[in-house]
Design a protein that fits this description.
Strand content: 15-25%
Low-confidence stretches: 285-296
Number of strands: 16
Number of helices: 11
CATH architecture of one domain: Alpha-Beta Horseshoe
Structural class: alpha/beta
Mean pLDDT: 90
Shape: globular
Order of helices and strands: EEEEEEEEEEHEEEEHEEHHHHHHHHH
Length: about 300
Amino acid sequence: MNTRYHFKETEDSICITGYEGMARILDLPEELNGKPVRAVGSRAFAGMDSLQALYLGKTIREIGSFAFYNCRNLRYLSLWNGIQAFGHGALRQCSALQEMELHLLSEDYSLLRMVLDCVESSLSVLLHDSKGETSRLVFPWYLLESKEDFEARAIHVSIEGAGYTYREAVRKNGVDFAAYDNAFGRLCSADPMLAVEAALARLAYPYCLSPGHQKRYQAFLQEHRVSALDRCLGDGENKERKTKIQILLKNVSYQPVEIQTAANLASRNGEAELCALLMAELGGSGSKKQAAAFSL
């Protein structure tokens, strides 16, 4: 069989142990040699600098230790919660990882917590649950430090950032959305711009979002509306930016001069679609005079 994957074969399954060459996107096969791929071996893709996006099939049940260690350009990960064992350090030093998409075959969220415990940096997670509901949750960064006090014979633990509190909202049988939303105040103090991302994500996918928490997210974005709009204009792919700006415009009241300033910025950056979106918010999308003023 012609394949660039290295693998071990048992009587009824396949374990992928490596890959020959470089690839920017890998969609791991669900079957090799007529047998289901059940595992990714230890250090199978460790140090694969070319890898940017990884798709793990629903047949996989085990991820070996350090399987994707130091894949420093890996930005996106898609997987299913059929994975029952997630090895130590599997995603360690994947410093570019920003987004994960998790498909739930059952109401077992153990895999989500295992991944979050492995990733201390900020991670945006798109969840598709077994009931057909979708939510996007931003899990902020955190830093856990332990210092031993020899004189007192004690270990002192300190936690920086808001991410640990957010991760505690993930339980084996689901996400405690109330606990997740209650952590927002700490995030606002620790990292206001990341709080913008978290607020936008919850408003975009308001699954189990209470009216009180919705108003809190909206109030925060209203207070930080200018910096939030600036961040959306300069962050991520164009499609993602457009979606975030649409959410902002739906939930926040802007002064015309604020929208006009943002449209000017979009124009200077050559972002015709974003410029048109902001012009429409001004009510000038049909005005030749305004169209000329913002002409690209």
